[in-house]
Amino acid sequence: MARSAESTTEANASATGTGSTTVAAAGDMDSVGEGAAMPSAVRVKLIEQVQMLLRESGNTEPFDAAAWVERWLRRPNHALGGAAPELYLHTPQGEALLSSLIGAMAAGSYM
User: Fold this and answer.
1) Is 36 exposed, middle or buried (0-12, 13-18, 19+ CB in 10 A)?
2) What is the pLDDT of residues 50-89, one digit of tens each?
3) Rg (the chain; Cα; Å)
């Protein structure tokens, strides 16, 4: 994982005091993180992608990927023209775009 993505990840974890989490399956009734709604299948995929990127980066510090993804989905994103990523959850093209954005952050790329 690129340095800038690690710094962002570490800053988000530090700012929120988050710990590690387990991703619930899309059909589970348990919520992910505090106050989060039941995750959709797309949310679960994005959370798993973030967890995989963290593992690949060698990051061994606890990080709540589910909470990070939920915050990221709700915040305006410059790469989406200021729209919140959650607006793109409802189509296969939108899902692919969000996955690409997360991958670009991990690589330190700008889209």
Assistant:
1) middle
2) 999 999 988 888 999 999 999 999 999 999 999 999 999 9
3) 13
